[in-house]
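To assess whether the prediction recovers the assembly geometry, we first specified each molecular entity separately, as shown.
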Amino acid sequence: MAKRTLRVGYPGNYREVEVDSPDAEPAPWDADSKLAVVGKRSPRLEGADKVTGKAKYTADVKLEGMLIARVLRSPYARATVRSIGFAKALKMPGVKAAIEIAKAARFQGDPIAAVAAETEAQAEDAVRAIEVDWAVEEHVVDLEEARKPNAPRVQGGKNPNERGGEAQNTAAEEACSSALKKSHATVDITFTTPVVTHSCLESHGSVAKWESDGSLTVWDSTQGIFAVRDGLARGFQLPAEKVRVLKEHMGGGFGSKLGMGQHSMIAARLAREAKAPVKLMLTRKEEHLAGGNRPSSVQRVRAGADKEGKLTCLWLVSHGTGGINGGANCAAPLMSLYNCPVRRVWHADVMTNAGGAAAFRAPGHVQGMFALEGAMDELAGKLGLDPIEFRKKNDSNEMRHAEYGEGAKVAGWEGRAQLPNAGGPGKARGLGVAASIWGGGGGPGAQARCVISRDGAVEIQCGTQDIGTGTRTIIAMIAAEELGLKADQVRVKLGDTTLPYSHGSGGSMTAPSVTPAVRAAAAAARGRVFEACAKALKGNADSLTAKDGKVVAKDGTSISWAEACAKISGANVSEQATRAQNFKGYRDGTAGCQFAEVEVDLETGHVQVLRVVAVHDCGRVVNPLLAESQINGGIIQGLSYALFEQRILDDASGRMLNTNFSDYRIAGPKEVPEITVVLFDVSNGRTNTGVMGIGEPPIIPTPAAIANAVAHAIGKRISDLPITPDKVLAALGKK
Amino acid sequence: MTSPFTFWDARTAEEAATLLSKKGAMALGGGVDLLGEMKEGIRSPEHVVNLRSIPGLDRIQKAERGWRIGATALLTDIADHADLRKDLPGLAEAAAAVATPQIRNQGTIGGNLAQRPRCWYYRSADFGCVKKGGKGCPAEKGENRYLAILGGGPCYIVHPSDCAPMLVALDARLFLRGPAGARDLPIADFYDLPSKNALCEFTLKPGEFIEAVEVPAAPSRSTFVKLREKDSFDFAIAACAIAGKIEGDHFTEARVVLGGVAPIPWRSASAEANLLKNTIADAVEPASNSAVEGAKPMSQNAWKIPMAKAAVAQAIRSFLPR
Amino acid sequence: MPADRPEGLSRRDFLSVTGALAGAGMLAGKSSAEDEDLRKAGGGLGPAPVKFGLRVNGNDHEVTAEPRATLLDVLRDSLDLTGAKNACDRGECGACTVIVDGKAVYACMMLALQARGREIRTIEGLAKGEDLHPVQAAFIEKDGYQCGYCTPGQVMATVALLEKTPSPSGDQIRAGLCGNLCRCAAYNRIFEAAASAAKAK
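The predicted structure of the complete assembly is given in tokenized form:
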């Protein structure tokens, strides 16, 4: 380990820290680093492929002799299969294989059987021809009904539907009552949020092909090629190296594609059975039913503050359901955002007979922040404090303090008091604020290889995946920076499990985990190029630098990159690096805050978000163009969650009713606000690049900020998402 | 994927009527609504008869009697028709309010008027209901937030068309063609309440299809207001079509028709009366209140009453000088 | 999944008691002799696969498909034009948008047979060799996408919009692109791309 002194912090607030960084790695970039490529707005490298339709997604893969699969899914929320007959289906034209998957269905959409046929139409016709004798059983899909002692047991046997308990290190109930009693002001509000589906435009899907040597190749619309590989290897009891998973482009990943899905196994099983490659892409309805979701929540928040506006107690009792599995906890913001002496959390996951939950962009945080920041605004109101002042009093993150300051200026916070009347007749405007909090610092283990050929060609190989975040482009930029080249001179190979290992693309982990490995690998390979060309430049390798497409000696003499690489003996140099542990650096996690301005139509209850000002930080910003796109996307997904989306289940049948995109509403062009992004460029000194993730932070505060803005506009809090016109009209006393 | 079928190109209206007389035959206009039903598995015709292959059936023309719009005229072409826009602004607005640009580019006026309801129980093959020849309405005790507040029972669908209420307000006539020849009727008579026929919202005899719609030439003012939950793309939560004549500050003739709140385009006589007996400005409140007279909300859809009032109020206000 | 299918009704029976889009004769059966006449007249296609011509990106193709095949099915499966995507299969997301006779349409909700004799343009035909269409170039420059799955549809919808409205206002851009969803939500930059392409023309 080398001790290095770095300048860390953000503009206007820098300090020096000493870090231990691995000897083999290049010196970490800090606030004083002058970079030529990193930090510039650069269009995506794969742009031309995406705008010409050449980009191939899993859904576009077509192999010789490939069959199409369709799945028979349970039409019942709960049922068992008394018998199943494939004879008719197997006799239908084009049908090559049929498999049984399960004898019991725990939710509508649970897979029971599947077929593979020469065409999609044949596969669909064949699925209809499978004969099933169903024994329909009693189901429960309502959250509160499922909690009752006599409710049907979703997971069978004696397992209770509700599994809950106190959080670790939580304060006792008595400590809370006493703290709340002593408080100057308190609030007690119950917030509720719906189940929403990821609705990636490319559904989950796989193309599976068994090779003649018994190995398996799978193209998968996944955020984690290695997770799919390992899952398939386990499922078929194969060594991992016998399974290859590929994913060049993928059509939307917001968490539900992190692990191996059942569809991958189904496709591979059918392919083995039919002795031909099989493609299985889920339909939109299947995607809504079985593709994962963000669980619902019912969060009762009690909070108190003293006269000075210091929080005295935060108390949360919550429960929620994602269907047949857990994952509904949303306590993290309440546990981590503010300073508070007494905190208590009790949470229960409730199982219901509906499609199960999956990680969804900032799991738990979006729901939790909506409740916490709603309670904070109400408490500020009771204390007679400005919402931002109140927040700052209880938040020790200096960066977020600065972000509030910047955001307030841009959003026009000063004029907030006059805003409700600024909308004209029949309209009310409001301005709301909310905070973000997330990790995003990445972790160790990701690997990258840099191969530099004698002709000067540079290739970075890394088994990560670009899920639309721009990973491909920022990898090229990091390597280009290190090698003194332009980003488009670096070829990036990713999305293939034969490449060096990397993690699944989730948790805002990819950029912070992958870029340090890429930089270290590029630096090491560059060292080999310097060694090869040192003689030609009459210097030693250590004194050379790579800049502007040249290798430059201390005395200023230089040769072109191509000339330098021509000195490589053999075909190329190849260096691999593994991402190290984070250094201590400046600070952990990202902050951020957002301001939303809304206009409410008092006659129709319609809410229009006019503008969002988003202030975020993600360490060193590799490419502002891409970082801003992530932020825009998070905000609009958050808006869609706040105002439109909800899974609607029919109690009596346990079936989802809005399994399309007209009844399941996703924000479209007319719902989009003007967005102003303010990015804090932070030198965090925690890795050799100092890059942090920005995938999740921007969705976290948006629903809370919108709800706070609506409350500001109409003077009534709507604590139940989505904020649809019926709820606004009810709040206005018009229903 | 739909079930298999035989596809026919009708070359003349007469041929279409003959083809449509075949057992299990259905007419195809733009196809968006029909294919949607077929893909859901709630409809599987054995024969699909293409009407867009009939030359001239998509014509939009002004004649002495008024505007005549062929059944396969595209909604886009109605919305964009400069002369029609001048004469019948409300119809152009209604056509422009339908769905999305792509659907307006495919969808025909005939298909818009005869589209089937969006009730999610109806649209899903997983549910049986009175509209599909079964028993009862699962929405009654189920999820009914978007369903009818007026005229419901035993089925509570709302008519999804934007153009239908406007054409009722404009007193249009529908020209139908069938094996027995042609006939025409006021468009209001085309639609039936579920209490009369729960299976289908409109009255077509076997083999019949819409050939054209005619809007009388009488000079009129018209407007169409549509309230949606999601502005980018949504069916109406409530809509209001008004057509009439204005002299000075008041209406001398008025027809007020609501969309999205009842199983058929819902004409409100009392809203019209209130609109006629007040100045436009003073009519806003009484007319919008009376438009929802007799509303019987279900368990979840009372919020559509203020929405319907708002649609009427906005429509009336649009006639006020700005 | 015919679970609660109305009691005792098969798929076909159920049809015969309900109405139809723009009219249907369900109850009256015509004589088979008349059927034969119509078939001889050359009208009936399918239900088995039929051969027909499609003009795509200026080229004539002969394809074989069942009448129930949509234009999207044929573009993707028969012609290997996989730019247009199937994301909702109900005309609700726009990922399959192509231009037919100058108008943006949902290829998933149009039968391939409906596109006979018409000029079909897909994303693959937009660039002239290496030269990108101004809309394509603008999408790259403005970062008007993320995952890129909806992009071919967004680009085609934008092209159709600008061909109809060469200098659109901000509101016209939003209205013109209302038929296209982007779950990554690159909307603001898609609008910027549309505005910038309009200027570039």
